[in-house]
Amino acid sequence: MYQALYRKYRPKSFEDVVGQDVIVKTLTNAIKNDMVSHAYLFCGPRGTGKTSIAKIYAKILNCLNLDGVKACEQCNSCIQINHNQNIDVIEIDAASNNGVDEIREIRNKISLVPSNSKYKIYIIDEVHMLTNQAFNALLKTLEEPPRHIIFIFATTEPHKIPTTILSRCQRFDFKKISEDCIVTRLKTIVNNEKIKITDEALKEIAFLSDGGMRDSISLLDQAVAYTDDVINVQDIHDINGSITKEEVRMIITNICDKNLEKCLEKIEIYDNKGKSMSKIVRSIIEELKNIILYSNAPDFFKTSDNFYLTIKEKTNNSNLYHYIHSFSNLINEMKNNSNNKILLEIEIIKLIGQDSEENAQKKPFSENKMVINTQTFVKDEKSKNQEKESSLLINSTKPFSSIINEQLIELKNVRINNALVSVSQKRKNEFKEKLEKLKPLLVNENYSKFVSLLFDGELKAISNENLIFVYKTKLLADAFNLELINFEKIFIETFNKKYYPIAVSEEEWDDIKTSYNKNKKQYIFKEELTPLEKIFQSQEKNKKNEEKKTEIDDLFESFVEYE
């Protein structure tokens, strides 16, 4: 039976490990100096060697004929570990064995001494999947373990592990493996397997694997099965669902030239070929980053590139930051959407359709607030909210607190109450999918203002027709509530059903959750006593009276008294 390349070339000794020199050196010195800990935590991205190093470390610790820090590979313990047959080295997948019963079973067995090894070693993969009860059951064992027990935990999400567990382990953070290291390792495999492949294809595999050695070897394995001839760059992109650098550059050029037809035509072609839209967007972001780096630090690149020079003449850094920010947000949207092609088309329509003078006037993306690194560009979230709030205050001389009257506050409390009467996670997920139908309205000038504001918040609760949206600041939540009539009309037009939305800030939502957890059995549906239209008519009347009063004051310098 054929053995996958990533299994065949899995490291069997520390000398075979690539890209984790610091971790290998630390563990080697721990063996030399007899400073082996009882618990280790290996953290890092997938395919960077966590489980492999755990097995190598277990093999060295249990080797019966250890030569310094090298396992002999000949004793019964080494042979059994290499074939996954050593009963004293137990590998557990926490994703499928995450309950308290499984951990209690481990705890009951740890008092037993190893059968034919020095240590009984538990390697628990994806340990963050354990339940809180399972972690609690494990805590006492970690605090006072027997001398013959060693735990090695591996995880891609260490932030999900309780601090009580973290504080009892030696933590090792695995880094992504560099492209040069991946290419070197792949060349060794290619030479051993007599695989015909171009150097450009190997570099492209290393780039697409994003620092994961296992991913790169798996992609190479797929390429071998895909082609009968020499593997080239195009073969790699066909397998991976990505596009070549030249094709990425063509899309960027068309965006800068405002050539919408060509962009949409290319997206249609890529979709018909089965390309991954999210991978295309990531490639665009990477190339946009290179353009900005070239514009600001040309010496960083060893050779000049005519493409970067051409794009630099067509646009400016502010627009490039804007593109990167928009595409980065698009990546997050694509994670929870089934039709990424539509999202990409809409995003490109928005970018190309925006008027450059309007962008310059609004200045929504400040160059000195962008952080450049080798992966992506991240904008300060606080600045984003401040800019959004500033735009909401245009043509308004009074804060929202003076505009929102008591009737609207009373309505807000009623709608919050009604949304909590019978909250349903299933109904919330279903309505979130419904909201995707509103995204095409982002490019409609009659709706874009309201839909954009809607998607700045997050749906947190729904009960029948009542909805609660949560915003980062109270100002954004108030802006939503002042447009309730428009939102209700949009929902009716889109869903053919009347919904009763309301918005709160994150701070208000925390208080609502606390109150709900204490009194969730006491929520009873309440009728809205004052129609929404009447509330806003009253607000408009008060606003006009206030404006009239201000005009008279300016004219008579406040000598007039009012009833």
List keywords for this structure.
10 strands, disordered C terminus, 563 residues, 55% helix, flat, five-stranded parallel beta sheet, 4 domains, Zinc Finger, Delta Prime, domain 3, alpha/beta
Describe the fold and architecture.
The chain has 4 domains: 5-173, P-loop containing nucleotide triphosphate hydrolases (Rossmann fold, 3-Layer(aba) Sandwich), CATH 3.40.50; 179-240, Helicase, Ruva Protein, domain 3, CATH 1.10.8; 245-379, Zinc Finger, Delta Prime, domain 3; 403-531, no CATH class. It has 27 helices and 10 strands. It has helices at residues 5-8, 21-32, 50-62, 76-82, 100-109, 132-143, 163-166, 179-193, 199-208, 213-226, 233-240, 245-256, 260-272, 277-296, 306-314, 317-334, 340-353, 356-362, 381-392, 400-403, 406-419, 425-435, 448-456, 474-481, 484-495, 506-519, 532-556, and strands at residues 39-43, 89-93, 120-125, 149-155, 170-173, 370-372, 377-379, 458-463, 466-471, 500-505. It has 563 residues and is of the alpha/beta class. Strand 8 (458-463) and strand 9 (466-471) form a beta hairpin. The protein has a 5-stranded parallel beta sheet, covered by helices on one side. A 3-stranded mixed beta sheet has the order 8-9-10, with helices on both faces. Strands 6-7 form a two-stranded antiparallel ribbon. 28% of the residues are buried. Helix content is 55%, strand content 9%. The radius of gyration is 30 Å and the shape is flat.
